[in-house]
Design brief:
By secondary structure, this protein is an alpha+beta fold. The chain is built from six helices and five strands; from the N terminus they run αββαβββαααα. The protein has a five-stranded mixed sheet. α1 packs across α2. The protein is globular. About 4% of the residues have low confidence.
Length: 156
């Protein structure tokens, strides 16, 4: 199964709205094969809380205007560090750059196909001058390596 045409249209509009508000590193994944609850994820980031909120507001406004759709759920508004907009067909994650680096959603969904985005959204990736946050290692980083080693051992 692949993302529906409606989901792809919503992704395109959301990505363009995010790019218009200078979101950074916009990417979209077709998650329809691995999740039953939605067809696509859009991920974008910003270097400060105010911009995170502005990007989420712009996405919501453009999807309402162009597709007559509103989110069924909006979470994270108060903190402004990670706002999730659930439109059923797509889920949009607008994250502060630090949260994006820490949680690494791209890593979780890297096996899913990317959805083509507008040129402005593609240009948002790794702009000169964009700050890149490096997450500090934590006590759980080794868990993934241990699980992979155990899986490899059980395959023998």
């Amino acid at each position: 199964m692949t993302a529906t045409d409606r989901a792809v249209a919503l992704v395109t509009t959301a990505a363009q709205a995010a790019a218009d508000k200078l979101a950074q590193n916009i990417i979209a994944f077709d998650v329809s094969d691995v999740l039953a609850i939605t067809d696509a994820f859009v991920i974008a980031s910003a270097p400060n809380d105010r911009q995170v909120k502005a990007i989420a507001d712009a996405i919501e406004e453009q999807l309402a205007e162009q597709h007559q759709t509103k989110p069924v759920r909006r979470e994270g508004e108060r903190e402004g560090r990670w706002i999730l907009l659930d439109f059923l067909d797509i889920v949009v994650h607008v994250q502060h750059s630090e949260e994006r680096s820490y949680y690494g959603l791209e890593r979780l969904w890297k096996d899913c196909p990317e959805i083509a985005l507008p040129e402005d959204a593609i240009a948002s990736r790794n702009r000169p001058g964009d700050e890149e946050y490096v997450r500090e290692p934590n006590e759980f980083d080794h868990v993934e390596a241990v699980l992979q080693a155990e899986a490899d051992r059980s395959m023998r």
